[in-house]
Automatic annotation (TrEMBL):
<protein>
    <recommendedName>
        <fullName>Calcium/calmodulin-dependent protein kinase II association-domain domain-containing protein</fullName>
    </recommendedName>
</protein>
<dbReference type="InterPro" id="IPR013543">
    <property type="entry name" value="Ca/CaM-dep_prot_kinase-assoc"/>
</dbReference>
<feature type="region of interest" description="Disordered">
    <location>
        <begin position="1"/>
        <end position="34"/>
    </location>
</feature>
<dbReference type="InterPro" id="IPR011944">
    <property type="entry name" value="Steroid_delta5-4_isomerase"/>
</dbReference>
<dbReference type="InterPro" id="IPR032710">
    <property type="entry name" value="NTF2-like_dom_sf"/>
</dbReference>
<dbReference type="Pfam" id="PF08332">
    <property type="entry name" value="CaMKII_AD"/>
</dbReference>
<feature type="domain" description="Calcium/calmodulin-dependent protein kinase II association-domain">
    <location>
        <begin position="42"/>
        <end position="157"/>
    </location>
</feature>
Amino acid sequence: MALIGAATPATSMTPVTGTAAPVGSPVPESGRTDPDLTALRHIWERQAEAWARGDGNAYAMNYTPDADLVNIKGEHLHSRPVIATQIQRYFNNQLKNTHLLRLEEKVRLISPTMAIIVRKDCVLYGAEKSCRPDTLSLNTSVAVKHLGKWMITSFHNTLVMPQDDQRPPFRISSTS
């Protein structure tokens, strides 16, 4: 996909107060509601609704047919059908009776047809109302607009690890 024309980046950061209620309409710096930012936020809402129902097919419909998804386990799922199948396996097992809670979201329009979305959220099990440290994640999505519809073409998710000032962020091993 080629990007044509100059991009006018728009960014909107929405902190969430810690409730499971959907975030309101985004308002960019200009003070006007941006329909693209609103549509991009609706992707998460559709995903969260499908997740809560345990519906892998509906969850995957937010992705392009050739999308890539890297989950917190490092599994690389390529294509909407593979995403639907694997996510359904998780919904039937480890993620049964769970739902998502969005804590923060930053949407950046890179061009009229491409956006980057960075979110902090967590998985809530059963009747949980707040995040546990072991379910907090940070994820990045690349969304593309095709024929007037925004979809995720790439998604990467990682668990947020507690910061330990005594431990380096990674260990370099030496062979000496």
